[in-house]
Amino acid sequence: MNFQLTEEHQAVRDAAREFAQSELLPGVIERDTEAKFPYEQVKKMGELGFMGMMVDPKYNGGGMDTISYAIAMEEISKVDASASVCMSVNNSLVLWGLEKYGTEAQREKYIPKLATGEIIGAFCLSEPEAGSDATSQRTTAELNGDHYILNGTKNWITNGGNASVYLVIAQTDPSKGHKGISVFIVEKGWDGFVIGKKEDKLGIRGSDTHSLMFTDVKVPVENRIGEEGFGFTFAMETLNGGRIGIAAQALGIAAGAYELALAYSKERKAFGKPISQHQAIQFKLADMATQIEAARLLVYKAAWLKDQGEDYAHASAMAKLYASEVAMNVTVEAVQVHGGYGYVKEYHVERLMRDAKITQIYEGTSEIQKIVIARGILR
Ligand code: CAA
């Protein structure tokens, strides 16, 4: 067992940290306030290889392992969780499944541009009445000759407005329940595909969350990924990996807030000494550091299992459950360490606290992670 990062991992961490500090930090408060998508920043993330980190280099990807991806997600999330969720969805909810299960024609057509951030992707599973209960898909895709007719509504779709390629989960045979669900590649601009309004959110306000409406959208048969009926397994497997990305995001939000609180506690004086010299603050810092380290170990373990080709569904659910809880705890405490300054935008921790909450909700709520973990234990 080896707990040290390799030189490659350290280089990824340094590059992501440098990018986050120089390109994401300037303007992050304004983008949050104005709910502005980090368009230019995402383009640069693509140029630097962050949008397709694990993709095979033959499709313009970085050919890196999942640990590298988790490390980069942590560093970028320390500063801008709106940019990192865009990165996470593109890497693990869109590119992973396209590369693993797509046909060669689908891979060649879509992956190179997605992997370089020239275009971005979205993953469309949630519906107005199918969130945690993901088997209850109402969106339908009816076969009609050489194409399907897609009808339905998707909700809470990250990258919804800015994506060019959408992986859409839909029922092709409702009589078969979740075994009648399939997955399709849908392109922006196709007739009948309408992008709904952008959601006005508590946190990750720069990220681009929309509902999507499909009315008699013609989807060519060659845009189905895998066989009919494969869609639910595709979605679950995709989310197993996606949850490593969100766990790393939660870890980064927590670590970012902790670093700010630590620095502030050394500068701010009260009762004649820096507040870091008061035990009340020291205990907070100790709890934060311990929780973050534990979350990091769970994230790395899940990523490592994936890289070893072993089952990681259980580990990724544990990592997401715990890291998102840590993100909430640590960001609340970071605001507390800052006192009144923590409650204003300028000091960043209030944003991180708002951003933390979503990590307990998307890509499976904490309650869903407990279902996945409990089923793994009892199987
Ligand atoms: N990995 C692989 N397969 C899985 C799985 C997993 N984690 N969980 C379930 N499955 C398989 C089961 O083995 C079963 O397959 P078989 O029928 O072949 O045996 C099938 O899926 C159905 O499973 P269940 O009978 O367990 O179904 P269920 O309805 O009782 O519960 C659930 C399934 C785990 C609760 C699932 O619905 C779930 O994960 N829900 C949460 C969905 C979710 O994470 N949504 C997030 C939306 S995406 C998002 O947020 C993206 C974004 O934009 C940021």
UniProtKB/TrEMBL annotation:
Residues 6-118 form the Acyl-CoA dehydrogenase/oxidase N-terminal domain. The keyword Magnesium does not apply. CDD domains: SCAD_SBCAD. InterPro entries: Acyl-CoA_DH_CS, Acyl-CoA_Oxase/DH_mid-dom, Acyl-CoA_Oxase/DH_mid-dom_sf, AcylCo_DH-like_C, AcylCo_DH/oxidase_C, AcylCoA_DH/ox_N, AcylCoA_DH/ox_N_sf, AcylCoA_DH/oxidase_NM_dom_sf. Residues 231-378 form the Acyl-CoA dehydrogenase/oxidase C-terminal domain. Belongs to the acyl-CoA dehydrogenase family. It comes from the Bacteria. Its cofactor is FAD. Transmembrane segments: none annotated. Pfam families: Acyl-CoA_dh_1, Acyl-CoA_dh_M, Acyl-CoA_dh_N. Residues 122-217 form the Acyl-CoA oxidase/dehydrogenase middle domain. Its EC number is 1.3.8.10. One of its GO terms (molecular function) is flavin adenine dinucleotide binding. This is Cyclohex-1-ene-1-carbonyl-CoA dehydrogenase. Keywords: FAD, Flavoprotein, Oxidoreductase.
